[in-house]
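Incident log entry.

Two folding requests arrived from the same account within the same minute. Monitoring flagged them as a possible duplicate submission, but the sequences differ. Recording both here for audit purposes.

Request one:
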Amino acid sequence: MGTTRPPARTRQRNPGTRHPTTADLRKRHRQEYQSQARGYGRMGTSTVELTKDNFDEIVSGSDFVLIDFWASWCGPCRMFAPVYEKAAERHSDLIFAKVDTEAQPELAAAFDIQSIPTLMIVRDNIAVFAQPGALPEQGLEEVIGQARDLDMDAVRASVATPASDG
C-alpha cells in the first residue's frame, strides 16, 4: 500500500542565465550608488568622478577641490552622498569630486585611504584636509569655510620649510 508522491515542482530556468557573481553584485551596487549620488542619473554641475586617468588634470587645474573617497557597499558613504551633493549645489565655485575606491584602487592606495568615506580637500595642489567618516551637513559646511579661510601663502611657506626636529 504505497502512496505515490506527485513529482516535486521544479522551477524552469533559462539555461542561458546564471546567478550573479560577487563582482556583478558590486557593480550593481556601484551603479545604484552612482545613480543616487548623481541625483538619479543627473551629475551635479560641479561634481566629477575622478579616475587615475583624469585625476592630475582635474586636481592640478583647480584651485579648490573636495574629494570624496567612497565605495558602493559602504553604508556611511551612502548616507554622506546626499549631504555632499547638496554642498556641491551650494558651492558651485568649487570642484566636488568622487573617487570610487573599488574602481580606482590605485588612487585610494596613493592617498593611503584606510577608511571610507574619507573627505579630502586640496587647495593649490596641497592637501589641506583629510578625514575619514561621514560628516553631517553642518560639519561639512564648517570644514569648507575653514578651508576657504586658509592663508595659502602661509600654508605654502609651511610646506616649503621642513619642520625642525626640536
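Request two (distinct sequence, not a duplicate):
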Amino acid sequence: MQTALFIGRFQPLHLGHITILQRLAKKYKILIAIGSSQEARTPQNPFTFRERARMLRAACTLLGIKARIIALPDYPDDEHWLDHLMTYQFDIAFSGNKRTIQLLRERGCSVHQIKEVGGISASHIRKLMSEGRPWQRYVHYSTARMIENIGMKNRL
C-alpha cells in the first residue's frame, strides 16, 4: 500500500481535516506532518506540537484511522525544510498550501492540492474562539474536549 503524506498546521484539527483523513485512509497508509511544529501559544499558532499530535491521535483512534505523526518545523529557507521532509518515505503528498505544493513538485513529488472541505477553516475557528463565540461544531468532539481543557483565553 502506498503512503500518503498529509501536511498541515492543524491549529486546530477540524472536521475538514478529519474528512480528508477518512478519505486517505481508504487508499493509503498515512503520514501526518504537523507543520510549524515549533510554533505555539500565538494567535495564529495557539497549540503546541504535543497538543496538536494529541488531537490527531485521539480523533484517529476513535475513527479507526491508523497514522504516523511527525513534527515538521519551519526552517530559515525552503531547501532545508524540504531536505528535512524528504527524509521521510511517502509516495504522494496532500496539502492545501500553494508554496508547499510548488516546492514538492519541484522536487519531483506527486502532490494533490487539498481544497477547503465544507467551508471549514482553522483561521475561522480561531477567530470564533477569540471572540468567545461557538466553535465546537467545527471540530471532532475529542478535539473540543481537549481545547476546552487547555483553556484558550490566554492564547488568543
